[in-house]
Amino acid sequence: MSAISLVLTAGFVALVIAGVPFAIAIGSLVVIAVVVGDIEPAFVAQQLVAGSQSFSLLAIPLFMLAGELMTAGGMSGRLVNVASVLVRHRTGGMAMVTVVAALIFASISGSAPATTAAIGAILIPAMVKEGYDKAFATSIAVSSGVLAPLIPPSIAFVIWGTIAEESIGKLFLSGIVPGMSIALGLLFVCRSHAKRHGVPKQAKAGWSEIREALIQGKWALLSPFIVLGGIYGGVFTPTEAAGISCAYALLIGGLIERRLTWAELPRATLRAVRTSAIVTAIIGVSAGFGVLVAQEQIATDFAGWLASHVTEKWMTLAGLNIAFFLLAAVMDEIAIMVILGPMLIAIANQFGVDPIQFGAMIVTNVAIGMAAPPIGYCLFVGMAISGVSLGRIARVIWPQILVMLVVLFLTTYIPQFSLLFVSR
Amino acid sequence: MLDLFVQGFGRLAAVAASALRVSLILAVAVMLSSIVLQVVMRYVLGNTLSWTEELAILMFAWLTLGGLALGVYEGFHVRLDLLISYLPPVLRLVAEKAIGILTIAFGGYMAWSGERFFDMTRGSISAAIGYPIEFLHGLAPVAGALICLFAINGLFAAPRPDAEPDLAP
């Protein structure tokens, strides 16, 4: 193993364990590799600039901003009302409202933690009021939030599509069945929890109440049709769709709902800047890291070694899923995608896995990692909203994680599961 | 004397961070306007603009590099702190300071490397708009210098409780 390879592998593990932020760790390792390998120093800056030169990646801050503007403009509240009149009367109804509202919000925003925040802030207190345990209420908001990476549009698919150089539109479609399956599984968990704990049902909404909620929520409900209809109707690219989604949220929140004020705009934008910077910083510094990994042939060597030692495709895919699950317990999911992406793609190619199906498998893993303890973006957001400790959430979230693992299994081993809506 | 220096440095970092926040908000506004304009012009006026995408990408470059620097000041970058959270307070402080020194070194190298890259590519222009490429290539040294400034400020500032990332993808 060369000195640069050693810096990039062992150095990465050491810095991450030492608590260095992922973005700083990756950037510092590129610098160390450049010094050790006697590479032109300008390489560091050149790659930092190159890492931000993709039009597709612009969708990240714009979808984040769309989520912020929709919450600030009152559209999230309208969506919750629509979900509430549709399912609240069922056993586990209030928890089901969380899942359905998250599903609708996910089809606009594309960001898992933004979905958890928007839905959780309204529905965690509402669920507790209806008699649900606070830890369970938090766990449902967290696990519903992770529908966002799978239901189109999705920031995680945008990132994977950029790394794998695959059609982002097709990747979006591959997440529909896994995402809807997780949502169905979560509804089942809500029902069985409410049954077991005797949570009282709510009164069924009358036709007039349903009609009123639909009328009030019409602008919010129209949004997914504009975003997804625009992308699949060939009207605009996913990045342009994110921009149009922001413009729509501004228009509705500012001119129709009249809740979005001039003073709120910079605050909402700054929140979107912070949350997207967490992701874009890692992507930006990873460009140089990726070039060095490719130069050292670390990814292809490992994929070749794996293919010569493990001949069974199913075993390799199972190994990848287990490795991703374990890594996500100690590492940021976006960093895993960006750093290990080239290696994962090389392995998938060696075993002839369909690249779109593989994308769906990776993003399902990302979704699980965001909800599964001990670290996950959505988990942190849920904890921040409810004040419930990690330990308490960890004790009640496992049925939801189990549902996601079953869906991951189906996505991994049944190609049609993710490719049902994807035209070849 | 040292207190005065630390206070002055803290004030300088705070002013730089405020300016950075404003610049990032403006970058998002320009990026969004460019993309919306691109779609509107294409479908409403039947005119495909050649410069909007390039301008939006330039703004995104600043969002990426400036956001990296803002994360150092505000401490929102994601990290695994499970291990160091178990360390005794003194050792934890040492570990935090060591991370601060590594960040200063990274920012400093980024600024120097950026300045070299800036010099090497001076005089070129962008493909669509034709703006001097220094605007794009100057972002790395500026962001590197800001990272350095914020990390030095963090080294002297009182330790703060860990900020949990609030919202991300």
What is the domain tally of chain B?
1
- Computed CA radius of gyration of chain B, to the nearest angstrom: 20 Å
Total of helices of chain B: 6
Uncertain spans of chain A, ≥5 residues at pLDDT below 50?
none
Sheet of most strands of chain B: none
Strand portion of chain A, in percent? under 5%
| Relative strand content of chain B | under 5%
Order of helices and strands of chain A: HHHHHHHHHHHHHHHHHHHHHH
* Secondary-structure element series of chain B: HHHHHH
Can you walk me through this structure?
The complex is a heterodimer of chains A (424) and B (169). With 424 residues, chain A is mostly helical. Helix content of chain A is 78%, strand content 0%. Chain A has 22 helices and no strands. Chain A has helices at 3-17, 22-36, 42-50, 59-72, 75-87, 93-109, 112-129, 134-145, 155-164, 168-174, 176-197, 207-216, 218-232, 238-256, 264-295, 298-309, 313-328, 333-350, 355-371, 377-386, 390-413, 415-419. The mean pLDDT of chain A is 90. Chain B is an all-alpha fold and 169 residues long. Chain B has one domain (2-156). In chain B, helix 1 (2-43) runs antiparallel to helix 6 (139-156).
